[in-house]
């Protein structure tokens, strides 16, 4: 569902991403770990078609993103670190608009069902987004993905700033989507959450994918050591 | 996607305090402006009807009198207030409302409303055209300056782009949401004006098609303004910058451009001063026949010609009163002199108008202003037309009086008096302003320029602006 083939992005002399080869299949959650500037967000932006690769290709559901920028978006949903919605509209109205933009015509009942499936409390459905916490907004983001019937989910630091329980809840939602066959690529700093939800984990540094593992093959402490080793960390681990 | 964006934008607009307050203020101002204009329109037209009736009664009842005395006694041509002046008062306030029609002289229109006002008038009047031309464009800016920038600033643009939004459908949705409140406010104003004018006594000729045409002109103007505001919002990163740029465009197009156009037109094609004009007229008058001076060279030449033509030795042998005849010939010479000099003024006015029209390309405000005033019959063109009609009537009146004097009295009998009922035979002064078709054909350039702004701004908005 998500494939990158020697995907490279340069800004002048600076290499933001170098020869990235990824393959995320249906029902897989791939977590990209790495420090700031490692190339995680660049990878997501290339998959979204927001920026053009210097070389290589990105594919969403077998469509080359560069050549089918608009069509490829039909299959994906994106949740950024800070999902921003229209503050003066309710959750239902926001979901209605964003799913409408994606070409879905849904009745209010269906919209509410998606919000419920995304874990939002029914009493919040008709409240304005300006009163929502970040966790609640992320749930609306998931509802947008559900309403769109997205085959691919791209997440950029989605749990950053969430409290542990909201973060855990978000992880559970990802598992639900995984069960539906959604291929997820998540950029994160959160090793614990990555180990919890991912099927595959990659560690990036300086625009390159340095290591990748199957989540089931590695423990959390091994993952932490591998991560720190990749980052050339000189301090003491806990 | 268009309707979804339209509904979303409309909900957002209506839920924002600043928008609700702005809309309420504009509606209140419009209501007040229409009410004030309606009262003013009714008062002025009642005064017009009274003055017209009184003046005609004075003329009809002046009693037995020598026709040339009646010519000096004179009468007035009153300019009516036309129905659509309720919407656009144009230059009505600065042009006179009545012209004194008398023998030997063409007079300027007098008694302008501005002349009756105090210095406070410099602050402007609350009229519907002020709201239409200045306030509603400001409202458009207030509603639309952050239309696109807010999406960037709030971060919703990223999510929209990831949803595969179509640029032109999104723009059209936003355009419609901005257009709807402006359309409704403008339509309400014109509908109220139409209902009020239909209900009032028909002093002028109220035509719904003129009102609809004027409405369309404003709607096109607002569409252009909406396009400009959206283009700025789409091409800037920050709402603050977008607001400042949009206000800059408003200042340049609505305030600066008309002043610049006026200054350039006046500098290139100046009118003579009142003193220069009066002197030039006097010089030309003295070169020709004066009906009151039978000893001038021109009078003696005319006398020789007439005696030769009628083959008589003395003017007393003519089959008509030569006093009336020479008076009429003098009038004809004076009318020619006035025609020549007023024609020069009209030519200057025409040249100034051409300068305005060529400068209308720099601002959509200018063609809108000219079209609106022309349709309302409150422009200088209509004022000139009224002046010409009054002058034509004055010349016809003088001929009517001089001919009666010449045909019914003896030479030298200045004591002869016309019958008291004779004055009633003079047809009343009637003036019909140009019809809508004529007005539009005279404003072809303005229509083309406004249409050009409309097409160009839409072209830029939908085909050049890409949201990224």
UniProtKB/TrEMBL annotation, chain A:
SUPFAM superfamilies: P-loop containing nucleoside triphosphate hydrolases (SSF52540). Gene3D superfamilies: P-loop containing nucleotide triphosphate hydrolases. Residues 2-231 form the ABC transporter domain. GO terms for molecular function: ATP binding; ATP hydrolysis activity. The keyword Nucleotide-binding applies. Keywords: ATP-binding, Nucleotide-binding, Transport. Pfam families: ABC_tran. PROSITE patterns: ABC_TRANSPORTER_1 (PS00211), ABC_TRANSPORTER_2 (PS50893). Signal peptide: none annotated. CDD domains: ABC_DR_subfamily_A. The keyword Transport applies. It comes from the Bacteria. PANTHER family: ABC TRANSPORTER ATP-BINDING PROTEIN ALBC-RELATED. This is ABC transporter ATP-binding protein. It comes from Maribacter flavus.
UniProtKB/TrEMBL annotation, chain B:
The chain crosses the membrane at residues 21-38, 130-148, 177-200, 212-234, 241-261, 447-465. It holds the Pfam family DUF3526. Keywords: Membrane, Transmembrane, Transmembrane helix. PANTHER family: ABC TRANSPORTER PERMEASE (PTHR43471), ABC TRANSPORTER PERMEASE PROTEIN NOSY-RELATED (PTHR43471:SF1). This is DUF3526 domain-containing protein. It comes from Maribacter flavus.
């Amino acid at each position: 569902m998500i494939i990158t083939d020697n995907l490279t992005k340069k800004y002048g002399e600076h290499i933001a991403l170098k020869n990235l080869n990824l393959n995320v299949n249906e029902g897989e959650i791939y977590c990209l770990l790495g420090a700031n500037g490692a190339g995680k967000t660049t990878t997501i932006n290339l998959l979204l078609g927001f920026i053009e690769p210097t070389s290589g290709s990105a594919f969403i559901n077998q469509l080359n993103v560069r050549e089918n920028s608009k069509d490829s978006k039909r299959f994906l949903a994106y949740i950024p670190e800070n999902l921003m919605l229209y503050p003066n509209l309710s959750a239902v109205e926001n979901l209605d608009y964003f799913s409408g933009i994606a070409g879905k015509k849904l009745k209010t009942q269906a919209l509410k069902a998606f919000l419920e499936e995304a874990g939002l409390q029914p009493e919040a459905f008709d409240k304005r987004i300006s009163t929502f916490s970040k966790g609640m907004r992320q749930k609306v983001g998931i509802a947008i993905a559900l309403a769109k019937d997205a085959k691919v989910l791209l997440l950029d630091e989605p749990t950053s700033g969430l409290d542990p329980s909201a973060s855990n809840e978000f992880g559970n939602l990802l598992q639900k989507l995984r069960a539906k066959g959604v291929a997820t690529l998540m950029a994160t700093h959160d090793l614990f959450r990555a180990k919890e939800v991912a099927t595959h984990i990659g560690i990036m540094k300086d625009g390159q994918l340095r290591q990748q593992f199957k989540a089931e093959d590695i423990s959390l402490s091994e993952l932490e050591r591998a991560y720190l080793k990749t980052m050339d960390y000189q301090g003491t681990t806990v | 996607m268009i309707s979804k964006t339209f509904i979303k934008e409309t909900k957002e607009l209506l839920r924002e305090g600043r928008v609700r307050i702005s809309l309420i203020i504009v509606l209140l101002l419009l209501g007040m402006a229409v009410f004030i204009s309606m009262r003013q329109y009714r008062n002025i037209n009642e005064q017009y009807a009274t003055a017209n009736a009184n003046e005609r009664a004075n003329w009809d009842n002046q009693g037995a009198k020598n026709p040339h005395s009646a010519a000096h006694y004179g009468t007035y041509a009153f300019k009516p207030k036309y129905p659509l002046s309720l919407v656009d008062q144009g230059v009505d306030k600065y042009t006179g409302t009545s012209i004194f029609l008398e023998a030997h002289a063409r007079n300027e229109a007098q008694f302008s409303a501005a002349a009756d006002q105090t210095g406070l008038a410099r602050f402007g009047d609350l009229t519907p055209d002020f709201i239409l031309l200045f306030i509603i464009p400001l409202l458009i800016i207030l509603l639309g300056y952050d239309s696109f920038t807010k999406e960037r600033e709030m971060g919703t643009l990223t999510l929209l782009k990831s949803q595969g939004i179509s640029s032109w459908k999104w723009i059209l949705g936003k355009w419609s949401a901005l257009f709807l409140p402006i359309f409704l406010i403008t339509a309400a104003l014109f509908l109220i004006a139409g209902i009020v004018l239909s209900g009032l006594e028909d002093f002028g000729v109220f035509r719904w098609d003129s009102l609809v045409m004027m409405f369309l002109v404003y709607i096109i103007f607002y569409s252009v303004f909406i396009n400009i505001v959206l283009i700025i919002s789409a091409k800037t990163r920050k709402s603050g910058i977008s607001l400042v740029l949009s206000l800059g465009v408003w200042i340049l197009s609505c305030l600066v451009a008309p002043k610049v156009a006026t200054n350039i037109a006046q500098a290139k094609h100046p009118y003579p001063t009142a003193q220069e004009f009066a002197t030039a007229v006097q010089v030309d008058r003295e070169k020709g026949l004066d009906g009151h001076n039978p000893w001038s060279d021109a009078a003696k030449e005319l006398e020789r010609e007439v005696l030769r033509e009628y083959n008589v030795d003395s003017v007393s042998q003519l089959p008509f009163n030569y006093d009336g005849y020479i008076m009429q010939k003098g009038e004809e010479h004076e009318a020619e002199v006035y025609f020549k000099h007023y024609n020069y003024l009209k030519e200057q006015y025409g040249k100034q108008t051409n300068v305005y029209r060529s400068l209308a390309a720099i601002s959509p405000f200018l063609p809108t202003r000219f079209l609106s005033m022309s349709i309302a019959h409150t422009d200088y063109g209509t004022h000139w037309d009224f002046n010409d009609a009054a002058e034509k009537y004055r010349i016809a009146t003088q001929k009517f009086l001089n001919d009666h004097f010449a045909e019914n009295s003896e030479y030298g009998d200045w004591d002869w008096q016309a019958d008291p009922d004779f004055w009633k035979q003079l047809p009343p002064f009637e003036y019909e302003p140009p019809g809508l078709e004529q007005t539009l054909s005279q404003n072809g350039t303005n229509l083309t320029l406004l249409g050009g702004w409309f097409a160009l701004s839409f072209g830029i908005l939908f085909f050049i602006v890409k949201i990224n």
